[in-house]
Structure to design on (242 residues):
């Protein structure tokens, strides 16, 4: 369910404007990214604050701060941090993508689509597949016709983009093409570790295709790996994709 926030944020671009302590800022940002990836939110927050003490106008530092707020579920603070970063670097793809992802996760999908399109047009943006997948997933959520083309573009740029593959599987299932949905689902599960959404959709696809053994195997994985999601999956049963 893309409305639950399965959108791709990208790490702050380490492109620091010239300051006497540029190396120090870069070091804090790299450390903060590493801490956040390891689940050390407090350590990442400390690194972001240290970078901002050196240069309060560092867009990557504000982006890192936004990622920290999101990790803590502080959505309003995260939005302000991403918006500040974007105001400082309005042409940087990372800032546009991350603010767009926040907008889509917080009920402002129509605004988000424009941010993703601006990210894709930003010169030198290093991870366009992320913005294209986000554009497609967000457009899918609100029934915008841009969804399919954006998702296809994402997997052309990155054939292992898990977000795009997962949404394409869901779309194919909703359109009644279970075999095509299975192909996308299998690619999604091979591309990255499974999440509850990917396993749930996989079970629905196998139910639709009549392979009850495969469907139950996916549901067993869901119960074992994501017990918090098992009750919802069981309630859905064989109702198919929502």
């Amino acid at each position: 369910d893309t409305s639950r926030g399965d959108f791709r944020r990208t790490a702050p671009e380490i492109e620091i404007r010239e300051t006497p302590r540029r190396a120090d800022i870069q070091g804090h940002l790299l450390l903060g990214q590493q801490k956040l990836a390891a689940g050390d939110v407090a350590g990442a927050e400390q690194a972001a604050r240290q970078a901002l003490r050196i240069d309060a106008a560092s867009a990557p530092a504000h982006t890192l701060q936004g990622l920290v707020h999101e990790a803590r579920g502080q959505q309003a603070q995260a939005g302000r941090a991403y918006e500040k970063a974007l105001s400082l670097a309005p042409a940087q793809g990372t800032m546009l993508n991350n603010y767009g992802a926040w907008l889509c996760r917080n009920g402002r999908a129509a605004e988000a689509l424009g941010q993703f399109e601006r990210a894709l047009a930003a010169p030198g943006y290093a991870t366009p597949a992320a913005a294209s997948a986000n554009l497609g997933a967000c457009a899918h959520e609100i029934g915008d016709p841009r969804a399919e083309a954006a998702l296809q573009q994402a997997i052309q740029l990155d054939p292992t983009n898990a977000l795009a593959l997962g949404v394409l599987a869901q779309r194919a299932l909703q359109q009644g093409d279970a075999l095509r949905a299975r192909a996308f689902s299998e690619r999604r599960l091979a591309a990255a570790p499974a999440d509850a959404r990917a396993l749930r959709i996989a079970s629905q696809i196998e139910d639709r295709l009549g392979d009850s053994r495969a469907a139950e195997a996916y549901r067993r994985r869901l119960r074992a790996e994501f017990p918090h999601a098992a009750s919802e999956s069981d309630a859905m049963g064989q109702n198919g994709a929502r």
In short: Residues 22-37 form the longest helix (16 residues). Residues 1-5, 14-19, 236-242 have pLDDT under 50 and may be disordered. DSSP finds 13 helices and no strands in the chain. The radius of gyration is 19 Å.
